[in-house]
Every structure is written in structure tokens, then in C-alpha cells.
Amino acid sequence: MPIYTFEHQNTTISKLDTASFNSLGILERQHLQSALKNNIQAISPHTLIIAEEFCEWDDSNRRIDLLGIDRDGNIIVVELKRDVTGAHMELQALRYAAMVSTMNFSQAVDIYQKYLGHSKNAENELREFLNWEEEKEAEFPKDVRIVLAAADFSKEIATAVMWLNQKDLDIRCVRMKPYKLGEKILLDIEQIIPLPEAQDYQIRVKQQAVIQKAAKTEIESNKRAKYRFEGNIYGAGQLVLAVIKKTYDKNPDYNLEKLQQLFPKSIQGTYDIITTTEDAERIQQKTSRQLKRHFLNSQDIIRTSDNQELAVCKEWSRYGTNHFIQQIPDELGYIVEIISDNEELN
């Protein structure tokens, strides 16, 4: 968005022309970097700079423009470009992030002490900044974050950064657009990736994805677990089906309500353990046609004396299966044995 001047007395709004760092005689290291290291909050809030032109690694003369730490204990790699394209700056920053990812707290203290000189005690300054009330050196760093700051970003860089962020990296693009107003230079500084208003939402989406991935992993793992019931060996879902079908075979007067009382939804947590085939098919259509949540093959359907067709839930985590086994009513007299993985499924 352009910047305007507003003169309220004569009610005029005038658009400021954009300039470039080059046309204004602003040099990348001498001017821009020097200003930002003392005012890093402008592009990276809650950050402490611990080194400038950092290059303490073997077999490389590459330099990180600014190296910092945030209050959460993350290492911050800041890469600056005064031009519009910022050519390959994301790849450059990724290399730097990898190279500092093994830094420990003691090394960070040494690096910061060199930056401070003898004026202050680096370790005390870092601990105060991090607000550590107990020993947390073993937890440092939590992660490495990247801040890219430039006059603007090409489509290629923006696309690459958004894709990398989807892969759980933390890269932020901050646009610094200069304007000339008389003898003054104005800087319009704005984080454009990720958009600040969308950042909390994106974090929640990532957290939900992690939870779903963990749940899926647990379910996939449980598919390999085996159980012995009535002399036969079953996987988790097949075990539940066998228990409920045996219960109905012994009690053919039971209807859906009675079966749900014996095997309530609270045991599985997400779906009714037993429901009508119509409800089961509706659930499948809402979720994924490729992933069936209930046993719907003809031989697996329970047909009751009141002409209902019932389907049993087939999606079970290891915890849910064990909970189901523990909740089988004592009066049924069933015994389920958890067996080793090297026996064949029935």
C-alpha cells in the first residue's frame, strides 16, 4: 500500500513517491545493517542481537548479517538485502540456519561476549534477556528462526518461503520500502510472510495437523497389534466386531439401544461403536470415501429382530482397543488376550 501525506487544514492527501535504497545512497552494510542491529525490533520483535557478520565456522567464509536470540530461546538468523529481488537470499539463510543449529548456550555466550567486548557480562545479559529462573542450558536452542528483510521479494522467493513454512520451518519476510519526504527518509516496514493476522491461525492449523498425524500413526501402529478371543486371532477392529457379533448371537432379542448401552460411544471416543448402516454410510461420505469408519460388508452387518441393520466401528487406536477390552461387561464372561505380533491374523 502506498503512503500519503495528509494536510488537514487544506484537506489534501498526497501520495509519496517510492524511492530505492540505491537512489538514496543507502548502503546495505554500512547504513541499513548498522541501523537495524541497534533497532532490531523494527523487523524482529523480542530479539537480542548477539553478533554481526558472524562467520565462526570451519571451511567457510560465509557471514550471517545479524545473529540474534529471541525470548523463547530460538536462534534468529537475519539476512538483509537492499535490492528488490534479494536473489537466493532464502537459500543463503537456510545454509546459515543449518550451520548455527548445533550451537549450544556456552557457545552463544562466547559469541555474544565478543560482540559486547568487555563492557558487560554476556552470560548475565543473556540470562536476564531470556528471563531464566532455573538452569535451562540443555534446552537451548529451541529452534532456529529466519528473518529475511529486503526492499521487496520476488514471486520465486515468496513461493519458496511459503512452501518451506508448510514444512514446519519458521521463515519471515519483512519488506522495507523507503520513501523520501523532504530531507527525511521514511521506511514502511511490514511483515508480509506470514501475514501477522494469519500467523496465529497458521500455528493452530500446524498444531492440529501434528495431532492428527500422531493419531493416524497410532491407529496404523495398532493395525499390527493382535488379540486372541474365543480361540481366534484378530486385529483391533476385527476384535471389536467379533465381540459384538458374539454378544448379539447369544442375545438375539437385543436391539441397537441395548447394544449401545453395553458398548457406549465413550469407549471409542469419536464414533458410536455400533450404529445403523445408514448413519455409518453418512459418516463415510462426510469424511473420506476411501477410509471406511465402520464394517459395511454384508457378512459383517448385524441384522436385528426388529429389522435394523447395524454396523460396528472399525477405527481403533491402541489405547481405545485396550479401553474397550477393559470395559467389556463382566456378565458376558469374555476373555481377550493380547498376544505377540508374530502370530498370523485370522
Automatic annotation (TrEMBL):
Gene3D superfamilies: 3.40.1350.10
InterPro entries named in the record: tRNA_endonuc-like_dom_sf (IPR011856)
Source organism superkingdom: Bacteria
One Gene Ontology molecular-function label: nucleic acid binding
Name of the protein in question: Nuclease of the RecB family
Organism: Chamaesiphon minutus (strain ATCC 27169 / PCC 6605)
